Amino acid sequence: MWSTASTAMLVPIFGIIFVFGIPIVAIIGGIMYASRRARLQQELLMKLAETGQPIPPELFHSDLFNGRRTGKSPLRGGLVVSAAGIGVMLYGWILGETSLVAAGLIPLVIGLALLLAAVIEGRKSKATITPDTTTTPS
User: Fold this and answer.
1) Alpha carbon 112 to chain centroid distance?
2) Which residues have a Cβ under 8 Å from the Cβ of 48 and sit 6 or more positions away?
3) Helix 74-95 crosses helix 98-128 at what angle (to 10 degrees)?
């Protein structure tokens, strides 16, 4: 039914389709997700406005509107990437491959940069949050 030559031609054809097709599908899916999210946000604001409810300013600074994922912190990402770099370095050291040890430095340094960014971001957010001391308790 299938000759060896026609079967051998299918491998590179499917390889090309998957190498270029999967990223294209992922990009299109991301664009569709972002547009759906924006539409739902606008519908929420319209419903609040139509019912006459005040739109709280905190709503625009929440995770729903600024695109940040809840539960994902730069500190966690920095720890994971740093650990991956250390793992690659240890694997290279066990095998005696200096190139793997050197390659492990790349994710390690990226992870350390993410940790530094998380620390700086945490300090900035703590500095901008000040308690309201102008009101007196009744």
Assistant:
1) 17
2) 54, 55
3) 170
In this prediction the pTM is: 0.46
Pair 65, 41: CB distance under 8 Å = yes
Token digits for 61? 């600074």
Alpha helix stretches (DSSP H) within the chain? 4-50, 58-61, 63-66, 74-95, 98-128
Lookup: tokens for 7:
């079967």
Tens place of pLDDT per residue across the chain (138 aa): 567 777 778 888 888 888 888 989 999 999 999 889 888 888 888 888 899 888 777 766 665 566 555 556 778 888 999 999 999 999 999 999 899 999 999 999 999 999 998 888 877 766 665 555 555 554
* Cα–Cα distance measured from residue 81 to residue 117, given in angstroms and rounded to the nearest whole number: 13
